[in-house]
Design a protein that fits this description.
Chain A: It holds the Pfam family Fer4_11. The structure holds two protein chains of two kinds. By secondary structure, chain A is an alpha+beta fold. Chain A is built from six helices and twelve strands. In chain A, the strands form four sheets. In chain A, strands 1, 4, 7, 8, 9 and 10 form a six-stranded mixed β-sheet that branches. The chains are: A alpha+beta, B alpha/beta.
């Protein structure tokens, strides 16, 4: 987890899409939103959940690791940048590699686009646009100490497990204090590949 | 707590984090008012930030508008204002896009009859035609044959002018405003009980409370930025009670969610009071010292045991007991309510039962204990304080009170005999138009074709007028039906004040000059007044001069603005009225001294008897139709239905219905009431009562919820019963396309706002209310 990062708290999310609109206002990709807002239990509940880039630390940025053009760079403060437009070839490898389903491909421009923690803002000491405007604090930007000062007793997790792979991220998630599971199960278990049952 | 990343030595390499490279803290950033010490790097491009507030709802979030070197608004930047602390909702973020929108009206439109097409004319010609029609109608049919309808999204200065213009220049009694559809029930109840019409506590008190009761308010969608206070209360261990027929985003995680049947609120609250009395949880000392009418209220509450109320409301009786215990036992409890309990033919009574409950438990006028009314429109609070309501004069004075009339006539410099008597409410004015009693009308900042109930009647009423002029900056559905449309400014092109839901007066600043051909509402009203021969009473070059008169006109009243000046507002970021002197800090919390604004200083409790809604259920119409807002749109949608991002988020209305009726998601369903029928895609969800259908109301016919709603009014506040009418739901063949917002002749409809209007499926954006069946 980075020193100063985004914390996602799905329990506070009201699905209003303020983050989606705010992301469009960000000058580095103006007009396009990089946020994914999912309604996790449609038809049964109004639960919703915003996903920003998790800025994976270990393994470091799977999207960058699989990039054949070395277009995705990671800055020293742990922020995984959007693909460099002068290098990106729009091959979608990063889209397939990301365990959180974050990067998007602009098919017309043949470029990858994703959340870069509003580097144009955070580099100048501002909070990312989404976490600045989020009306409920479902997206919070700061240190874990600042978060705990504001919300006594809050529990966060930054390690997620997909099958047998553990991923530690720079962005952290608030988890229910009374049901801390470590690491947080992510994604769905793989049950078959090419028609073959791979459950063991 | 997370594991230390450095402890995992056996893991793969990771980038060591150097804290000195991390961006500096948000806290420091917020403390600095949201602007870093080195100012904006964008300043190199000549960009400036103008501090102002959002133009939409009653939260009145602070924001900066980004203005480029040509002086045009082109973006938004969060602002660290007390109210919202940098937060914004999707409407606020996209609001700036209206300012230089291609649909803006930039020249007056005119036609001599509704059969003709609009043509663009000069201001001179439009104003002359308007004045000649006013004179013709008034000379033939009397002064009262001409009406004026204002709006609560106007700055307070302009609402003051609307009232003065009607009574001094038009000399008509028929003036009202669209806040009549918004908050007047709460206003009526507060006036009856407390003698003052505003919320009792500021938002920040929510953070101090132990129990928060929210009735009939979808905070997560209609006042999203207020949600931070609700969650903040929960962070500190407060219990949350939500009363709403739908499981809204705040109801989802509430401790108690009471999904009662629409139109049964007063029975529920009286029954909660019954349990509070039965269990001896009332604060008898407080009642004896501060309330009148308690014995009568107590006797009435005895008639509403939980078993009876549970049958009326369609909820388990235990919930009533649970709510009573949670609310009454909390050391500090608060109740907030909004349109959900106010939009009823018993709207005032519903609000009174909430006040009765707060008073009986002694939760009034303390930090973290009290009640609040959430205004829908940006200036819903200020819009009714300064005389644009049919029965009120500036400063909340009554137009029936001789003393009050005398005071205002003195300020306005007219004879008391010249001041017209009280007028009628907005819906009643439409009925009068139908009956040809009102033959001419000017509408300012409202769109009744979408926002008034029973569209058929509204259309008939407006069509029957001989002359109709509308002030607007977009061609609204109502303006498209007018004879004259005057292009006026958006909120970013003029300065003025608004009062938010906490009665905190905030100042909006001018960010850019209006486009050529556009004038301010103030200028247009003064110019009309001059041509009507009342120019000497309307010598207002700008908002500031109006505000100075408004301050004087409200001095010494309950709604005292005298101590509020533009300079003080800019300095403090907002002052809550009453504020009688220029060194007075304002009154964020009412009744701290235990005194109300009645002459005896007591809370006047009122007896309330529940009665069924006006639209009876029967075999043909067994279900309840309720209407409301969605997060991406605002009121009649005249502004928000033109902004691409918001249209994309929620392109069309839907009918929200429980799976027990057997409809599939996205299937066309016909919602039928006694007023008409409309087809919507079904949005099948378990998050609504099985006997209730919900349709959002921001769209015009043929996709208008208000073609179905009933124009029954509350006898006291005259608010229409939007929130409940009898309906049935049937299968339908196909859904109707959402009509594009009207545009002036010569303009093409903006392509972005056409996106997905034909999508046959309900939007997934209604906060997770879609279903997994979406193919």
């Amino acid at each position: 987890m980075m020193g100063r990062t985004i914390f996602i708290d799905p329990g506070r999310c009201i699905g209003c899409q303020a983050c989606v609109s705010a992301c469009r206002e960000c000058d580095s990709h103006r007009g396009k939103s990089m946020i994914h807002l999912d309604y996790t239990d449609e038809g049964h509940s109004v639960a919703s959940l915003p996903t920003v880039c998790m800025h994976c630390e270990d393994p470091v940025a799977p999207c960058a690791e699989v990039c054949p053009a070395d277009a995705i760079l990671v800055t020293a403060d742990g922020v995984v940048q959007q693909a460099d437009t002068t290098r990106c070839i729009g091959c979608s490898n990063c889209v397939n590699a990301c365990p959180f389903g974050v990067p998007k491909i602009d098919l017309q421009a043949k470029l990858q686009m994703k959340c870069n923690l509003c580097y144009d803002r955070t580099a100048y000491g501002l909070a990312p646009m989404c976490a600045t405007v989020c009306p409920t604090g479902a997206l919070f930007y700061g240190t874990v100490e600042e978060l705990q000062a504001e919300r006594p007793g809050v529990q966060v997790a930054d390690t997620f497990v997909f099958g047998e792979t553990e991923v530690r991220t720079g962005v952290a998630m608030v988890v229910p204090a009374e049901r801390v599971q470590w690491p947080v199960p992510g994604g769905l278990p793989v049950v078959e590949i090419n028609g073959k049952d791979v459950r063991r | 707590m997370t594991a230390d990343p450095r402890a995992a030595a056996d893991r793969r390499t990771f980038i060591p984090l150097d804290p000195s490279l991390a961006p500096p803290g948000t806290r420091a950033f917020r403390d600095a008012g949201g602007i870093p010490a080195d100012q904006w790097h964008a300043d190199q491009n000549g960009e400036t930030l103008v501090p102002t507030h959002c133009c939409f709802c009653g939260v009145q979030c602070g924001m900066y508008l980004r203005v480029d070197r040509r002086g045009k608004v082109f973006g938004v930047e969060p602002r660290n204002h007390d109210i919202n602390r940098m937060r914004l909702c999707p409407k606020g973020i996209n609001a700036y896009q209206q300012v230089n929108h291609p649909d803006r009206l930039t020249a007056p439109l005119m036609r001599r009859s509704r059969d003709e097409e609009f043509r663009e004319v000069s201001w001179e010609e439009a104003l002359d035609f308007t004045v000649s029609e006013i004179k013709r109608i008034q000379q033939t049919h009397g002064n009262d044959a001409f009406g004026l309808l204002g709006g609560a999204s106007l700055f307070s200065e302009k609402t003051y002018l609307v009232g003065k213009f009607a009574r001094v220049a038009l000399k008509t009694r028929h003036v009202d405003y669209n806040g009549r559809l918004c908050m007047v029930s709460a206003a009526g109840a507060n006036k009856l009980a407390f003698g003052i019409d505003r919320a009792g506590n500021p938002f920040s008190d929510i953070l101090l409370t132990d129990c928060l009761l929210i009735a009939g308010s979808n905070v997560g969608e209609c006042f999203p930025v207020m949600t931070q206070y609700v969650w903040g209360a929960r962070d500190r261990g407060a219990s949350l009670i939500v009363i709403d027929p739908r499981e809204t985003a705040i109801a989802r995680t509430a401790d108690i969610h009471v999904a009662l049947k629409p139109g049964t609120d007063s029975a529920f609250f009286t029954s909660v009071l019954h349990v509070v009395i039965e269990e001896g949880l009332t604060d008898e000392d407080y009642l004896a010292a501060h309330a009148t009418g308690w014995e009568e209220v107590k006797a009435k509450a005895a008639e509403y045991p939980p078993s009876r109320a549970a049958a009326i409301c369609g909820i388990p009786a235990e919930q009533i007991v649970q709510v009573a215990r949670t609310f009454a036992r909390a050391p500090k409890a608060m109740a907030w309510h909004a349109r959900g309990i106010e939009h009823h033919s018993q709207g005032v009574e519903n609000c009174l039962t909430v006040i009765n409950l707060c008073t009986a438990t002694g939760h009034i006028g303390k930090p973290g204990a009290g009640y609040g009314t959430i205004t829908g429109q940006g200036n819903g609070q200020g819009g009714r304080e300064h005389g644009q309501k049919a029965d009120l004069l500036p400063g909340g004075r009554s137009i029936m009170n001789e003393e009050h009339r005398r005071q205002i006539c003195e300020i306005w410099g007219i004879e008391e005999s010249e001041l017209p008597p009280a007028g009628t409410s907005m819906m009643e004015m439409v009925w009068q138009m139908q009956r040809r009693e009102i033959r001419g009308l000017i509408g300012i900042c409202n769109n009744p074709f979408v926002s008034l109930p029973n569209y058929r009647v509204v259309k008939e009423g407006y069509d029957a007028t001989e002359f109709h002029a509308q002030f607007d900056f977009f061609l609204s559905e109502t303006a498209a039906n007018a004879h004259v449309v005057l292009p006026v400014t958006t909120w970013a092109e003029d300065e003025g004040v608004m009062a938010n839901a906490e009665a905190r007066v905030v100042k909006h600043n001018k960010a850019q000059d209006p486009p050529p051909g556009v004038r301010t509402d103030t200028w247009a009203m003064c110019e009309l007044a001059r041509r009507l021969g009342a120019g000497d009473k309307f010598d207002f070059p700008d908002s500031r001069s109006v505000f100075d008169e408004l301050r004087v006109a409200s001095a010494g009243t309950v709604n005292d603005y005298y101590g509020i000046t533009y300079e003080r507002l800019e300095e403090t970021g907002g002052i809550a009225w009453p504020c009688p002197t220029t060194d007075h800090p304002g009154t964020p919390r009412l009744f701290e001294d235990g005194k109300t604004y009645h002459p005896d200083g007591k809370i006047h409790l009122q007896v309330v008897e529940w009665h069924p809604p006006m639209d009876p259920y029967d075999d043909a119409y067994p279900m309840s139709l309720t209407t409301g807002r969605t997060v991406a749109h605002f009121l009649s949608g005249n502004q928000t239905r033109r902004l691409g991002a918001l249209v994309e988020q929620t392109p069309r209305p839907w009918a929200e219905i429980h799976p027990s009726h057997g409809f599939r998601n996205g299937e066309p369903v016909r919602v039928v009431t006694r007023r008409g029928s409309e087809v919507f895609p079904a949005l099948v969800t378990e998050a609504i009562r099985p006997d209730t259908v919900f349709v959002p109301y921001h769209w015009p016919v043929p996709t208008a919820a208000n073609a179905l709603t009933i124009d029954a009014l509350d006898p006291r506040s005259k608010i229409p019963e939007y929130k409940v009418c009898a309906c049935r739901v049937e299968h339908a063949e196909r859904i109707d396309e959402v009509p594009a917002p009207p545009v002036a002749p010569g303009h093409v409809a903006y392509p972005e706002t056409q996106v997905s209007r034909t999508d046959p499926l309900p939007p997934t954006a209604p906060q997770g209310r879609g279903t997994s069946e979406r193919s």
